[in-house]
Automatic annotation (TrEMBL):
SMART domains for the chain: Kelch
Region (Disordered): 49-73
Species of origin: Carpinus fangiana
Annotated protein name in UniProt: Kelch repeat-containing protein
Chain segments annotated as coiled-coil in the UniProt record: none
Domain of life: Eukaryota
UniProt-listed InterPro entries: Kelch-typ_b-propeller, Kelch_1, Kelch_repeat-containing
């Protein structure tokens, strides 16, 4: 009996312990499941955030543990539908327009022809507008002149037949306009090393010594009596060039027979602004890579290649050493003639930024940027009537003007579409 009673009690105890054990296991399992869910949720948020960044590419495919979590395609769709509230333009938040004050733009007389990748130089109240694509299959070979005093397009004259039609390097001393290298012909044809100078008073052209090798859209400027040419794209139109040459010039004449090699630019590539202010030379923005001619194409048909647009700013100092300055508010390219200097500030209009991470299309910029040379700080001082690249810019009597270029498809689509001849102006006022 005693042994029988002890057995019963022992059996009951085993049942209790078993129940407690099962309950404990269930609690531990529930805790582990909850922790795992929280980790999965946290990891997904991190992956999705990183994937949306244009500078991050996940090395492995994202695998979601259950069907209720968003798929990559849904993330892409959400990215495309993202809205930038400050400008009211529909675009992925990663590549949205930057917040900017409204400017009152006035439409002026359009240029005689539309231009893409043209060039422009302002001398006093005249804006000389050169060459450029009319369409991808047609290039201009003349100069149009806009008079800021009476707001009319007037004189028109031809360029030399051997002169490049787009992707030009260009600078002026106030009378003579120096024209360096560039692309000869439509589509994605090859570059030329030919260099010319225009006397704007007589409308006469002269040859200068050719550049050592051809380049597309090199940064070009007159500085300390020398014509400086640097960067651009190499002969294949895609590979960035780092070389830097200079040539002594005076009154439209070359004082040397050959170009001199100078310190290489820290980062190569075409489509950047090159500016001299207070005896300092600045190179702003640009890109690495460009369209190339399709192999075997008899018309040198343009073929898309990878491009990297950047916001870098460099300055060449008294010791002929490059110094890196604060970058632009966003990457910006196609701005070689899209700038003016006003009140010790550099003002840059439009351009292109990095390609959209989802659609892979080119994204145009619609901002007006200001770089204050007293504070070395960038700001966004306005937005354009539309996003546009390769604008040709001038400033006269308080008015900021821009003409030509390739504009966006509309307020909700920043991809490039129509090549335009429009001329716009706005009264420019800085708020310090």
């Amino acid at each position: 009996m005693v042994r029988s009673s002890g057995s019963a009690k022992h059996g009951s105890a085993k049942i209790v312990l078993t129940c407690v054990g099962l309950l404990g296991f269930a609690l531990v399992a529930d805790f582990l499941w909850a922790s795992s869910s929280r980790f999965a949720s946290s990891s997904y948020s991190s992956i999705a955030s990183n994937w949306a960044s244009p500078r991050h590419t996940s090395p492995n495919p994202v695998i979601f543990p259950n069907k209720d979590q968003p798929t990559k395609s849904r993330i892409e769709e959400d990215a495309v539908k993202g809205k930038q509230a400050a400008t009211g333009r529909l675009l992925s938040a990663t590549f949205a327009d930057l917040p900017a004050p409204e400017l009152k733009w006035e439409k002026m007389a359009a240029a005689p022809v539309p231009r893409l990748d043209g060039a422009a130089i302002q001398i006093k109240n005249l804006l000389y507008v050169f060459a450029g694509y009319g369409t991808i299959d047609y290039v201009h070979s003349h100069v149009d002149v806009y008079n800021f005093t009476d707001n009319t397009w007037g004189a028109r004259f031809d360029m030399p037949k051997e002169m490049a039609h787009s992707h030009l390097g260009m600078a002026t001393d106030g009378r003579y306009i120096y024209v360096v290298t560039g692309q000869y012909g439509p589509q994605c044809r090859g570059p030329t090393a030919r260099t010319f100078v225009l006397d704007t008073e007589t409308k006469q052209w002269r040859d200068l010594p050719p550049l050592p090798v051809p380049r597309y859209a090199p940064a070009t400027q007159l500085w300390r009596g020398r014509l400086h040419v640097m960067g651009g794209s190499k002969e294949n139109r895609h590979t960035p060039g780092l070389e830097h040459w200079s040539l002594a010039v005076k009154d439209g004449n070359a004082l040397e027979k050959e170009w001199r090699t100078e310190i290489s630019i820290p980062r190569g590539g075409p489509h950047r602004a090159c500016i001299v202010v207070e005896d300092r030379l600045y190179v702003i923005g640009g890109q690495e890579g460009d369209f190339m001619a399709k192999p075997g194409s008899p018309i040198f048909k343009c073929s898309r290649r990878n491009e990297v647009v950047y916001s870098d700013v460099y300055m060449l100092d008294d010791e002929m050493k490059w110094k890196e300055l604060p970058p632009m508010p966003k990457p910006d390219s196609h701005i070689e003639f899209a700038w003016v200097v006003v009140n010790n500030s550099i003002v840059i209009i439009g351009g292109t930024t990095e390609k959209h991470p989802v659609t892979k299309k080119m994204v145009l910029n619609g901002e007006v940027f200001r770089f204050n040379l007293d504070t070395l700080k960038w700001s966004v001082i306005g937005k354009l009537p539309y996003r546009v690249k390769t604008t040709l810019v001038g400033f006269w009597n308080g008015w900021l003007h821009f003409t030509s270029g390739q504009r966006d498809k509309g307020p909700d689509d920043p991809a490039p579409k129509k090549v335009v001849a429009d001329m716009w102006r706005t009264k420019l006022k800085f708020i310090f």
